[in-house]
Specification:
- The chain has about 300 residues and is α+β, with helices and mostly antiparallel strands.
- It folds into two domains: about 5-210, 3-Layer(aba) Sandwich (Chemotaxis protein chec), CATH 3.40.1550; about 215-225 and about 245-285, Roll (Surface presentation of antigens (SPOA)).
- About 30% of the residues lie in helices and about 30% in strands.
- The chain is built from eight helices and eleven strands.
- The protein has helices at about 5-15, 15-30, 90-105, 125-130, 175-190, 200-210, 230-235, 290-300, and strands spanning about 35, 40-45, 55-65, 65-75, 115-120, 135-145, 150-160, 220, 250-255, 260-270, 270-280.
- Strands 1, 2, 3, 4, 5, 6 and 7 form a seven-stranded antiparallel β-sheet that branches. A four-stranded antiparallel β-sheet has the order 8-9-10-11, with no helix packed on it.
């Protein structure tokens, strides 16, 4: 059975710290800077309870195979907005996007995420105590430096009992048998297996994160029409251009001129926004596989 270690999450966080901070800021409009040098981690039995884990806050829950991960941001950090307790459609979309982005940035590729969810809670301490009692638990406590002071970000990992590589009933056997059994296990395991967070398993995510930093132009198109040049030369302030598109039809969302989705206009604070209603997949293209001569004959035909 797979054994999860909180140190792997700390390593992933150190590699993608800027992206994690940017994801929080996009969702919450404010965040701060994570002080990874002052991070503390260990078994849950060594966790020190203080005022920062009391009250309400934001919880992002990740369900992975045989384990659960909680990311907790207390409301005392001053970066958690009030709207998370009763989010509208736009707020729910923000929280869902935050959970998806953190799932990409915080976890190595061999940690399969089954589900993710971000929501508010009014009882952080109780939720954490119940979470820690479910199995073998570890914690990661990271100082958070905000514009209004110093706070903390918690990451908790709970592995279901019996899912680790060792089993409890082995401790009842004599010491000699334990040693022989352990040696046999080590010999039977492939030596090439890399531990979680190994550099070889991190290459693809690192390349992916580099691609995720590329900024692309995103456009929302209200409508399109064609007019004679004479009418265009007669345009002036106050002129009205009529389009054939109905007011009820969705707007097109494009990247580099390619329509990827359609949605409806919404108001986000005092800004304009778009609620996506449907995704538009790109047209399928088929390429004939075979000898070069066969491909050329197909293309000519």
């Amino acid at each position: 059975m797979k054994e999860y270690r909180i140190e792997v999450l700390l390593q992933c966080l150190s590699e993608g710290r800027e992206e994690v901070e940017a994801a929080f800021k996009r969702a919450l409009d404010d965040f701060g800077s994570l002080d990874l040098a002052g991070a503390e981690h260990g078994a849950w039995s060594n966790f020190r309870w203080d005022e920062s884990v009391r009250g309400s806050g934001l919880v992002v829950k990740f369900q992975i195979e045989q384990a659960t991960v909680l990311l907790v941001l207390p409301e005392s950090s001053t970066v958690v907005p009030n709207w998370i307790h009763q989010p509208d459609a736009t707020g729910e979309s923000r929280l869902a996007t935050l959970a998806q982005e953190l799932g990409i940035l915080l976890f190595p590729p061999d940690w399969s995420i089954i589900s993710s969810e971000a929501k508010a809670t009014s009882k952080l301490e109780t939720d954490l105590q119940v979470f820690a009692s479910q199995g073998k638990s570890q914690f990661l406590k990271i100082p958070l430096l905000t514009g209004k002071g110093k706070s903390v970000l918690f990451i908790a990992l709970s592995q279901l009992a019996g899912s680790a590589e060792s089993t409890p009933h082995q401790t009842d056997k004599p010491t000699e048998n334990i040693g022989r059994h352990t040696s046999a296990q080590r010999e039977s395991r492939p030596r090439s297996a890399a531990p979680p967070g190994n550099r070889a398993t991190r290459v693809f995510p690192l390349l992916t994160r580099s691609l995720l930093r590329i900024r692309l132009p995103l456009e929302v198109t209200l409508a399109r029409t064609r007019k004679p040049l004479l009418e265009l030369l007669q345009l002036c302030p106050g002129a009205i251009i009529q389009f054939d598109k109905s007011c009820e039809e969705p707007l097109d969302l494009s990247i580099n001129g390619h329509v990827i989705a359609r949605g409806e206009a919404v108001k986000v604070g005092d800004k304009f926004g778009l609620r996506i209603l449907e995704m538009t997949p790109p047209p399928e293209r088929y390429v004939v596989l075979g000898p070069r001569s066969a491909r050329e004959s197909v293309q000519k035909g």
